[in-house]
Amino acid sequence: MAEIVLDGISKRFDDGFEAVKDMNLEISDGEFMILVGPSGCGKSTALRMIAGLEDITEGSLRIGDNEVNDIAPRDRDIAMVFQNYALYPHMTVRENMAFPLKLAGAPAAEIKDKVEHAAETLDLTQHLDRKPANLSGGQRQRVAMGRAIVRDPKAFLMDEPLSNLDAKLRVQMRTSVARLQKELSTTTVYVTHDQTEAMTLGDRVAVMRSGILQQVGSPAELYDHPRNIFVAGFIGSPSMNFLPATVDGDRAKLAIGEVPLSDELRAEAASAGAGRDLVAGIRPEAFEDATLVGDARDRGITFRAKIDLVESMGSEKYAYFEVGHEGVASKELAELAEDAGLAETPSGGAGQVVARIEAASEIKRGDDAELWFDATTLHLFDVESGQSLRSA
Amino acid sequence: MKRGTREYTVWSVGMIVIIIAALFPVLWILSLSLKDPATIADGRLIPSEWTFDNYEALFTGGFDSPLLRPLINSVLIALISTSIAIVLASFTAYAIARLDFPGKLVILGGALAIAMFPAISTVGPLFDMWRNLGLYDTYPGLIIPYLTFALPLAIYTLVAFFREIPWDLEQAAAVDGATPFQAFRKVIVPLAAPGVFTAAILVFIFCWNDFVFAISLTSTNSSRTVPAALAFFTGDSQFTAPTGNIAAAAVLVTIPIIIFVLFFQRRIVAGLTSGAVKG
Question: How far apart are CA B278 and CA B266, in angstroms?
Fold first, then answer.
């Protein structure tokens, strides 16, 4: 067990592509750190540099007390779970899990004990003598985990370990990964492109984009105080709604109406200059069916919107409506849409807003409904830089 | 269900036809080898008189017998050629499959071109060269030309196999604490083995079956291989054709190939690598 420190790490490939740019990250002992971002953001490269599978172009990487830049993977005492599991097909489950111990020269009795203990933890005991080819996807995934945990390494590195499982199994494995990590309290770096996994698993989450670390913080921090429009749009599902906005005095003008600004926002908006084009970010749950809002009503504003579609999730409903604007032109948002495969869909978001409302709401498709918006949760971003005004 | 049955029947009939077409000549030669000279031309598949004289004749005279020395030559030359070809081709194929280096395509293209080259056109120059170099009628005199044709064959086969190996496994082994050599020996070699054995079988059969080089570049039994030696069989007298002896020798040369293939076939387990990675 050890802390991992990335100090100004950069990775330039031979063709000149810079996958990771000046990354600074301190992962403390026993922490579960998530690296998250759209594909191609450099998260896997960063992980592979920690593992030693990629050379570090610049910067210094420390595991525990030692700089490990020039140390071979085998001497870093880390264990890695690969996206495709990378099980040895010619070995049984037992041999797969025993492999790292055998290489370390552990006595046979100890190997047997450790493998059987790990198999028990992962519910693999009855499969120990089977070959990976005869296992289901979930079982293979567990063998890959088993191979990592038998050794009691300084750190676990996991490269999208759940992305090949089907949705239901993924959720199940997610909780067992979290439990396992808490039990072993081994420093863990976990790469994923799935923001749900990031939010639910991590002690802290590091959001990356184009090789640059955008923000590091607890899941709640990222959700409530995204530093820029990219983090805001990436974290949360359904994702944050973005509307063009201008600030005029103590009010922000949005397509849904004029929203009074909180003191904090007002000060920052003022310093940014009045009349400037901004982007307003509104979480879906900041909306509510106006008829269901009680005392909180004066915290926000109400407005009317024609509801295009209502999706009932059972515990809540998602109401979609258009607010008649062109959408927000932002590089970061375009990138997010592209990553989600939305770029080509006609109704891919421009002007469409989603509200998460209570299941008790009677709003139906086609209604001209009155909605309430909690003004205290408004986020404002600079169009040019994408930075949040709150943290500016 | 009905359609399935009919398809099954069609396929079965087709396969039986092909098997008969392929195996009938083999049966015929087996039958010839068991007939005595008097009935050899009777045109019957089942010999009326069974005899092993044809086989005995091949080995009478011990080391100077018509077949024993060529058989030893064949085995040794084919084995030596195969071993050298597989070792060299493994290195080459590994480099081609794993590394990016200038001239990679030239090597592959060159190998293919050489494999396509008609062997007969090299025989004349080789004959001259070998006599000047003292390689005529020696083992190396045959092994070298075999290698020129066996190497491209082996390289092509092995590149195809090596490309299929999930190299993530090497990295997994590195993280698990293996040195590069341990990763190669404990993970990559077992996975590459089926490919290596396949290439070995192909190369061995190529060397074993060669007639053109063997007949042109040898003059005595000191290096003559079986296919060439067959052409030098004589009958018991100058008036008898050595049909029975040739048939017996032909049956005998087939046996090592069958053993070789059967022995290594178990190693060529299709889908050995399945389950390594989630595809």
Answer: 25
